[in-house]
Every structure is written in C-alpha cells, then in structure tokens.
Amino acid sequence: MLKNFLIGTERIESSLANIGLLLLRVFIGLTMAFQHGSGKIPPSEGFVSVIEKLHFPAPFVFAWLAGIGEFVGGILLAIGLFSRPSALMVSITMGVAAFMQHAQDPFRQKEMALLYLFAGLMFLCVGSGKYGIDAIFSNNKKRYPY
Fold this sequence. Notes:
Elements: H1 2-7, H2 15-37, H3 45-53, H4 59-79, H5 83-101, H6 107-126, H7 133-137
Helix pairs in contact: 2-4, 2-6, 3-4, 4-5, 5-6
C-alpha cells in the first residue's frame, strides 16, 4: 500500500493518453517549481508574514514547507518520481492558496491555484503514467513491459 502511494501508477493502455499525461505532468511540475516555488526558497519575510496572517503556527516552518512543496514537489512531479506524494504536496499548498489566501478574492484571482490544485489531485489519483520514473521502479513490469 505504501509503495503504491510512493511510486505506484495506474495502468493506462493508450500511448497517446500516456504522452498527454507526460506533457501535462512536465508542464505543471516545471511551472510550479520555477514560477511559484523557486522564489519561496528561502522564504522571504513578506512570505512568512503572509503565512502568519493565515494563522498558521510556526509561520517560518510553514513558509519553508510551502516553498519546498512547490519547488521540490514540482520538480519531482515533472520527472515522475514520487508523483503521488509530490502531487499531494502541490495540492495541499494550492488548496491553502485558493481557499485561505484567496478565499475572499473573485474567482479569477484564485483560478490559477485551483488549476494547480485539480491537476495535482489528478496526478494523486493516477500517478505518473507510463513515462515517469515511478513506472520504472514500481512493480509495473506486468503493467508496462518496456
């Protein structure tokens, strides 16, 4: 069960669907890492104060966790390694962004966070697909005999 969560991936027969997953995973992962996460490591005082205003305990720690979730989680998602835990990190961070930081904002202000949230949830459900590192290391030889 734990191994399946860490490196498992669902079997998808269609090569075209697996290529689509690959393209989406790489795009979501890299844009999350470099557009959103890289500027948060190390977290600035401004970002820490944003976390503090959300009433998180230990805002410095949670600011680091958000930065790591976006940057490291994005890179791991892009390469398809630990895709489900990475997608979970991205989803949690984007859930906080959409429903806490932007809770009172109009939809267009939270739309990007929601897109990343739901893309993360999709990869949490299906894993990396055939063309991710997870598929190589999991017991998917029966699923994906390369």
